[in-house]
Design brief:
Layout: E1 2-10, E2 19-33, E3 37-44, E4 47-54, E5 59-67, H1 69-78, E6 84-93, E7 96-103, E8 111-116, E9 130-133, H2 142-147
Antiparallel strand pairs: 1-5, 1-8, 1-9, 2-3, 2-6, 3-4, 4-5, 6-7, 7-8
Amino acid sequence: MLEIERKYLLETMDWKDEFIQSVTHIKQAYLFEDEDKSVRIRIRSDKAYMTIKMGKGVTRNEFEYLIPVSDADEMIEKAALLCLEKDRYVVQYLESTWEIDVFKGKYEGLVLAEIELNNENEEFQLPAWIGEEVTNDPTYLNVNLFKNL
């Protein structure tokens, strides 16, 4: 499966004026990571996933599997992993669905917006609250934020 997404910093918090479809607390850790692949455990409310990502840039391979929350908790505990935590807001803006991640803990104050696309050249309208694109900046990859916890 391919994940095609673009990632942005936010210019303002005016996205909260848009239609918020949902809010979910996310806790995630990485069992393995290197320059272009990773294995992630993510607990999202009452569900957990193991995700394998491969590649760089706008388009990456992504394989995601539902696992029991108890297994996710045990893997995090047994591996003594720190967790990256954030609240994810799903926001509808015109024809597009945006995911806004509001980070907690060490990254309090960091807010990133992502949009998933059908192809790399898909056109979409940027909301006024979108700032600099950071899709190709490795600083803002969750795996790199995790490494710096």
